[in-house]
Amino acid sequence: MTGNRHVEAIRAAVHALNGADVDGYLRAFTPTSLRWVPGIDEPFPISVIAQNINALRDAFTGFHLHEDLLFGEGRHVCARWRMVGTHTGEYFGIAASGRAISVEHCEIYEFDRDEGGLVATTWSYGDPAALFHQIGAHTGGNAS
Asked: pTM (2 decimals)?
């Protein structure tokens, strides 16, 4: 089944990422893969995806994506992850707080049409404010 092969490809990529093998994770994506994020007009190319992942790994000791849900059919796979770690390094200018994070995140992966079996496009949905709140950063707005 194509869907199961793609589900296992995502699972293997995240397993590599959790093992500190960022390159192994990135091998699951085409060189022209794009990641769309709500609120950002242009998608991120693979080079920016790599930079963002390395920034997370550098800033959060014990960085790990836990699989909450992973399923797919045909060329599409949907995943709900829980990102955990401890904020021990600077992240987007925010000094290490020593705080633990646990942030839910959802991604939809579309695999290329040929038999390469690589991710061509990702749509990423999450709440970045939740991560910043957990590390003690103020994201604006009124305190209640």
From this structure: 0.88
